[in-house]
Write a structure and sequence with these properties.
The protein is α+β, with helices and mostly antiparallel strands. Helix content is 18%, strand content 23%. The protein has three domains: 213 residues, Rossmann fold; 52 residues, no CATH class; 190 residues, no CATH class.
Length: 510
């Protein structure tokens, strides 16, 4: 086995590299990427633009001689998973029981033969490992790649014969990262990572331990993954999705290992608040047609569901924890001599088109799994001007003149929830309040919120760059192609924060 010198950097090759999410994560962890290979020319162009020092292949790897791959310490590859994933954005209707199909997925059924492509691309990983002396192999896929593919155990056994042990990690991208070198991805994206390492090496530490607040212990803890009981086998699950097959618990026995929620980054951190979109009531004047009836229905349901006022501390000299909290659930914090509270209603992300999403959600949560096409839009209720004076707060529409400006200053503000917010729990979504125009609703504390009319809301589709941010691509990362091609590359990508986390763990044992 090749050993690292004191000054060399480990190397990695990336099969099915796509836009380079896993490559970017490995590079940030300290690897040199020496090859990116993909069957789609546009993805290869994107990868080459960001990794000009690496070799590139635009080939169908099923027919490629793996002996021609360059030498590297680690092989990274994501076998095609669209048979088991909603990431292609296609809604698959369930068939009649007599249709002769396996109803394997929540999103809908698939033909038995559809696994053929998954088998072929997974076998490409095995073929490459057979002819190269890799120290580690990393594969990303959807959970059902392990639970529903009939040949998964055979595939693992093949890697064992070649001298590898395996670790299967179930994780959502929202839970991986830190506040320093590896920011969380603001997206719910449940995936498994199968990490193979040589049995002659120490196994890397890949336990998922996200930081979380335990209300019983009243402190931050490293949460522990806790698996639910499988009703069929009566034993704990070993592979699955967050909140379906596993939860997180406090590691302390004093609180009875209470179920807790890890910190996450909200979807708002990926959104460009400089562009609120077009007011729904004015779409025709901008040359846009009316929204589909199903989209309007989702918007109305979302406004009704998420129109819960939230108290927000806006006084920056506040000595408390600065948290936001539901106005209908908690008393006000200790009053001070300065006015520091506002009440806000968040914007919404609204699913559109024929996707499996049906509900609008607030931007206080991570985004849903990114797909390979446009399937979500931003809805922004019309902004209000806030006036904080004399122990209370009033509001007025932005179409009205400002009230008198006094020498004291800092009495007016257009508050935008969640702009550039850092990681926060879903229970305390408002981490930072900005004061630039575009994307929020602020209502006065002196009276209940007025009805939000649909026509006064702003609406636009999410941009490719916002999809890319949800996958943890930085804004200086070049993505080639028109909007649809960029969105497809974002939807197919591996979140860079998870790749960086795994790569960092591998560095400890290489």
């Amino acid at each position: 086995m090749t050993r690292l010198s004191a000054t060399s950097r480990p190397t990695s090759i990336h099969l099915f590299c796509g836009a380079g999410g896993d490559s970017d994560g490995f590079r940030r962890a300290g690897f040199d990427v020496v090859l990116g290979a993909n069957h789609w020319a546009r993805a290869v162009e994107t990868h080459a633009a960001n990794f000009p020092e690496a070799e590139h292949l635009c080939v169908d790897l099923d027919h490629y001689d793996m002996r021609r791959l360059p030498k590297a310490r680690v092989l990274v590859g994501s076998p095609i998973c669209t048979e088991g994933s909603p990431a292609d954005g296609i809604s698959r209707p369930k068939p009649a029981p007599s249709a002769g199909q396996l109803d394997l997925f929540e999103e809908g059924p698939m033909q038995d033969a559809a696994w053929e492509r998954t088998r072929a691309t997974a076998y490409d990983i095995l073929r490459a490992a057979e002819v190269h002396n890799f120290d580690a192999v990393v594969c990303e896929n959807v959970p059902r790649f392990a639970t529903a593919w009939p040949l998964f155990s055979w595939w693992l056994h093949g890697m064992e014969i070649l001298g590898f042990r395996h670790q299967i990690i179930s994780v959502t991208a929202a839970h991986i990262g830190d506040e320093h070198s590896n920011r969380h991805a603001p997206q719910w994206r449940d995936r498994i990572f199968v990490v193979f390492t040589r049995t002659t090496m120490r196994a890397p530490d890949l336990a998922v331990r996200p930081s979380a607040w335990c209300p019983a212990c009243e402190c931050d803890v490293s949460a522990v993954q806790s698996w639910r009981i499988n009703r069929k086998t009566r034993r704990p699950h070993e592979i699955g999705k967050y909140r379906q097959q596993y939860d997180f618990r406090c590691p302390n026995a004093a609180c009875g290992h209470q179920v807790i929620e890890p910190y996450v980054r909200p979807a708002s951190t990926a959104i460009d608040w400089e562009d609120p979109g077009i007011r729904i009531g004015e779409r025709s004047s901008h040359g846009r047609g009316p929204l589909a009836a199903s989209t309007l229905r989702k918007i109305r349901l979302g406004l009704a569901k998420h129109r819960v006022p939230t108290m927000v501390t806006v006084n920056h000299s506040d000595t408390g924890d600065g948290r936001a909290f539901p106005a209908h659930e908690s008393p006000l914090p200790t009053r001070t001599v300065r006015i520091g509270d506002g009440i806000a209603i968040p914007p919404l992300l609204v699913p559109v088109g024929g996707s499996w999403n049906t509900d609008a959600v607030t931007v206080t949560l991570p985004m849903r799994t990114r797909t390979t096409r446009e399937s979500e839009a931003l809805l922004v209720p019309a902004p209000f001007i806030t006036e904080h004076r004399g122990g209370g707060s009033t509001t007025r529409a932005i179409t009205d003149p400002l009230a008198s400006i006094t020498a004291g200053g800092n009495h007016h503000g257009l508050v935008i929830p969640y702009r550039k917010g850092g990681p926060t729990t879903t229970a305390t979504p408002l981490h930072t309040i900005a004061t630039r125009e575009s994307a929020g609703v602020v209502l006065g504390t002196d009276s209940p919120p007025d009805e939000i009319t649909l026509e006064d809301c702003y609406f636009r589709m999410l941009s490719p760059r916002e999809h890319l941010r949800a996958q943890r691509f930085t804004d200086d990362y070049t993505v080639i192609g028109h909007g649809g091609e960029q969105t497809k590359q974002a939807g197919n990508a591996v979140p860079g924060n998870v790749a960086q986390w795994i790569a960092s763990a591998l560095l400890e044992v290489l």
